[in-house]
Design brief:
The chain is an alpha/beta fold and 486 residues long. Helices cover 60% and strands 10% of the residues. It has a domain of 97 residues. Strand 8 and strand 9 form a beta hairpin.
């Protein structure tokens, strides 16, 4: 390795590793840097972060009792648990590794499909890794994160479909992406269809390879995943429509305000650079169009009730936006590595456009302007329940597991943690994963199953006593109650 420093009014540093060595270093950095960024919140919390993450922990333990092939992360977790791995430890590290894989896939796509030079590819990786929306996906949407990483790896082979290796790689990675998450499957279909139509217009034979792959994946998706239940696919894919149009104006105004507010909280600071860096690409263009349509579907069609919320679609915009931002930096000529001044300007702009990221990572306090109730938390350093409740829940559930109890009733937010530490039946109440049931309704459900001793994990004595439970154990703020038949 040789190092040569030359100065002509500015500092230039040229490092000669050779093209292969430099490429390997860049590839390694594309994995390591995003992984280190994703590890920041994990390092601040003793348990895996993420609201839905405890569900993955539970799915791993109980996979053998309900084995399913798709989404692919479920058999992966089930296999790791069967090997004797602790699911809490697995989910502490797996999201970080998946975020590193996403960075690697972004680099590969930038290099192979977009044909960008090395430093510009790395900048795209950094922009994605620091994106508030991208980090929100990595917080607890692990199926989608894994699918997106596979999707970019697949799309990086699009220009090599005429070669056997390129065709095989695209087909295999597209399968992994499609069968990891349904929304990413939709993105793959739209992008592939656009690519097919663009190639057919040039020369019909060029569109044949991607058509074969897409039809094969579509056939497997409908048959293997959904068992040919076309009605279910249409319901989940197309949503429904409201029949009452009496409050159409108020609904439109509410949807417009809500969706625009979420959009600018996620992307407001990068909009100028993104607009500056817009360019036409046969992958990013249909992805952008689909993402914008899904994000503002309820504004364009106020009576539409989507099965996939606009906020979920909005998160998928992080990826095409990041490429446009990287291109915007390049148009501003801030990617001249030899110029110390431009490098400092690049760093300062990156810090400025990612102000909400520092609070989300738990490094600073987060302004309320960058939080969304029920969707975008103040910080990634959190789980579905507070830390003191996690430790108390684990201790009490282990206590329950040692008793003659056969059913444990818990609030939906506690379900993942409780079900992982017991092999017995768990019934939920409350919002979200509790199906809006009350404690009494959850009790009725348990009794209908002819259950034996029924226990309740909760922290409000009045709720428990009024439903016929008596307290048998206590740990911190949490309590374990046993049902006493009337």
């Amino acid at each position: 390795m040789a190092v040569r420093i030359r100065s002509y009014g500015k500092i230039r540093l040229s490092i000669f590793l050779g093209p292969v060595g430099l490429e390997r270093v860049a590839t390694l950095l594309s994995f390591i840097v995003p992984a280190l960024i994703r590890w920041i919140p994990e390092a601040q919390f003793p348990y895996p972060v993420g609201f839905d993450t405890p569900l993955y922990i539970s799915w791993g333990r109980h996979y053998a009792s309900n084995p399913v092939a798709f989404p692919l992360i479920l058999p992966l977790l089930g296999g790791l648990y069967a090997l004797g791995l602790d699911m809490v430890a697995v989910m502490k590290y797996l999201p970080t590794l998946l975020y590193g894989l996403l960075g690697l896939s972004i680099y590969r796509f930038s290099r192979s499909h977009l044909g960008w030079r090395l430093e510009k590819c790395l900048l795209a990786v950094f922009v994605v890794a620091l994106s508030l929306a991208s980090l929100r996906v990595s917080w607890d949407m692990h199926k989608q994160l894994m699918a997106t990483a596979f999707l970019f790896l697949a799309l990086s082979w699009l220009k090599s479909l005429n070669r056997p290796l390129g065709f095989a790689a695209f087909a295999f990675l597209s399968f992994l992406a499609a069968f990891s998450h349904e929304v990413v499957f939709g993105v793959l279909m739209v992008v592939s269809l656009y690519w097919f139509l663009s190639k057919v217009c040039e020369e019909p034979k060029k569109g044949l390879p991607i058509l074969v792959v897409v039809l094969g994946i579509l056939f497997l998706f409908v048959g293997a995943w959904y068992g040919w239940r076309l009605d279910e696919i249409l319901r989940r894919g197309l949503g429904s429509w409201l029949s009452d149009a009496s409050s159409l104006g108020d609904r439109w105004l509410w949807e417009a305000e809500k969706n625009l507010s979420e959009f600018f909280k996620l992307y407001g600071l990068i909009v100028p650079l993104m607009v500056l860096g817009l360019f036409k690409d046969s992958v990013l263009l249909p992805w952008l169009g689909l993402g914008l349509l899904g994000s503002f579907s309820t504004v364009l069609f106020p009576l539409y009730v989507p099965s996939i919320t606009p906020s979920r679609w909005m998160l998928l915009l992080a990826y095409p936006f990041s490429f446009y931002v990287a291109h915007g930096f390049d148009r501003l000529r801030l990617l001249r590595i030899g110029s110390l001044g431009r490098l400092m300007a690049l760093t300062l702009v990156l810090l400025a456009i990612n102000v909400p990221t520092w609070g989300f990572l738990g490094l600073t306090s987060q302004p309320s302007q960058f939080t969304i109730v029920g969707f975008l938390p103040e910080s990634m350093v959190s789980s579905s329940i507070p830390l003191h409740d996690i430790e108390a829940t684990i201790w009490l559930v282990k206590r329950f597991d040692e008793t003659a109890g056969t059913v444990l009733i818990v609030h939906g937010h506690y379900f993942g943690w409780a079900s992982y530490y017991t092999g017995k039946r768990v019934v939920t109440f409350g919002e979200l994963y509790g199906a809006d049931r009350t404690i009494k309704q959850a009790l009725d459900l348990a009794q209908k199953e002819d259950a034996g001793d029924i226990y309740l994990l909760w922290y409000v004595d009045g709720d428990a006593y009024s439903s016929g439970f008596v307290k048998v154990a206590e740990k911190g703020p949490m309590k374990l109650y046993r049902y006493v038949k009337a």
